[in-house]
Amino acid sequence: MKTVIRNIFTGLILISLLSLPIVAQDAPPPTSAPDLKEEALPATAETEAPEMTEEAEKAIERGLKFLISSQNKDGSWSSKDLEKGEAAGYAIGGTSLGLMAFMVEGHFPGFGKYGKALERAKDYLLKRSEDSPTGAMGVKMYEIGLYTIAMSELWGMTSDSEDNKKIQVALERVVEIILRSQSPLGGWRYAPRPDAGQDTSVTAMVFVSLASAREAGVLVPAETIERLTGYLRDQAFDERRGGFGYQGKGYTIACTAGGVYAAQLAGNRDAEWVSAALNSLENDPKMFSRKDNGHFYYSHYYAMQAMVQAGEERYAKWYPKIRDSLISLQKPNGSWQEKDKDYPHKTPMAIIILGTPNRYIPVYQR
User: Which of 71, 185, 202, 333 is at a distance of 20 to 30 A from 191, taking alpha carbons?
Assistant: First the structure.
């Protein structure tokens, strides 16, 4: 069944797979989801990209089965702290990532063996959006960013045309919140306000979500992109180490991975400061150590896509390392959760990383 569903959506998504860096748009946002037509991919890579292995496919399938078994009755995914309130359980971020974990394998709401479960997840997010007076949801801007990516990638890919209209409205509302929340220096912080400050971790997540929305046809002004580039280059990049700091110049693995990916999507792939940050990731001995890389799944979620953006040669060297590492870290129950009340991001992020060769989700493509 997975092969059938994958074949259906491959033809729909092929035209979006070579995502351009996010640039200014002169046209207004569309009034309906964009049409996706089949187009052959150009064979331009000199280095052959790694393909999905049988072991990786099995690991992904075990991970998806774990997500199905751990889905809440309301359709969400969250940590087990949800009994203390939705904020404690990070249900918006967990559900958004959960949907993307299935989409990276070609599974969408209303189709195939996971269709009903994904419908429930989609309905949960749409209801939360409809119930919000402003469209802002979740604990922090992290969750707003993840929700925006999920809505962008779902738009036009559901079985119900009415749902697509609801997704469009929800997506445009949340993008407006993000645009209004950018600080004068160009970044974002936890709260959806321009006076909240900025840090590289939140900024990366939020800007990746804008890139995804742009791929779906939503307007992202040139000024937003220019200010983001200015923040990363002038406020966060450290010339001595060749990476990005959390608040101000410096270096952390997670902020460098996220900063690189955001900078690439902003049109800075060939900039020397972006190349320097990529080199710092490739040469960091802690990068692939779960013990030494404290934000392992979060940092590799960005780093994997940064290597995709950097070209097939870098991607071909990077993916097998993280693939084998993730397969070795998977728990017997199919998850990557490390404690009973763990954050809900680790399992779906691991699946998204492992599923990179499938090239289904446009924002995760070059």
Answer: 71
Q: Is the confidence at residue 22, as pLDDT, over 60?
A: no
Per residue in 155-178, is it b (16+ CB within 10 Å) or e — as a string? bbbbeeeebbebbbebbbbbbebb
Cα 214 from chain centroid? 14
What is the residue type of 228? Answer: L
The reported pTM is 0.86
CATH at residue 99:
1.50.10.20
The reply to whether 43 falls in a domain is: no
* Assigned domain for 88 exists: yes
Structure tokens at 44: 């331009």
Residue 30, in any domain of the structure: no
Q: Domain of 8?
A: 2-13+50-364
Structurally, how many domains does the chain consist of? Answer: 1
Average pLDDT, the chain: 86
**Phi and psi angles of residue 243, each rounded to the nearest 5 degrees, phi first:** -145, -170
Lowest mean pLDDT of 11-20, 44-53, 297-306, name the range.
11-20
